[in-house]
Amino acid sequence: MELLEFLLNDDQIFTTITLVVLIALFIGNLVADKLRKYQEITATEATTLMDEEGLIILDVREEKERKSGFIANDIHIPLAQVKNKLNEIDKTKKILVYCRSGARSAHVAGMLTRHEFEYVYSLKGGINAWKKANLPISTKVNKNKKKKK
């Protein structure tokens, strides 16, 4: 009872509100992680996933960002275009989504799972984590690949 009186004391009300908000955010974050239908994976885990046949690697960055490098054999669909091109992506295959830092790829991974894609992975830390792990980066576009419009 003394704790409750202390927390509701006029001098402590700001601290109490801050504590309640932080606890709510923590619990919300835990619940969101449990409800997420895609997996966030590290760069090392992504390389293991790439050993599997038929993996789709999806870069959702803007065209200008690709100049700094991209993961070989990926498909490039900028974030703004993904929703309109969902029917062009095979729902039965595993999909690894990446961006610069991982925020956009997490957004797209969530979108894909909401559209009934079953095997979706988001590269945690994006291409930045990939580079930090000293994994190979391509900078030349394969001339044999037709560019999607």
From TrEMBL:
It comes from the Bacteria. It comes from endosymbiont of Bathymodiolus septemdierum str. Myojin knoll. Residues 51-139 form the Rhodanese domain. The keyword Transmembrane applies. SUPFAM superfamilies: Rhodanese/Cell cycle control phosphatase (SSF52821). The chain crosses the membrane at residues 12-32. InterPro entries: GlpE_sulfurtransferase (IPR050229), Rhodanese-like_dom (IPR001763), Rhodanese-like_dom_sf (IPR036873). SMART domains: RHOD (SM00450). This is Rhodanese domain protein. Keywords: Membrane, Transmembrane, Transmembrane helix.
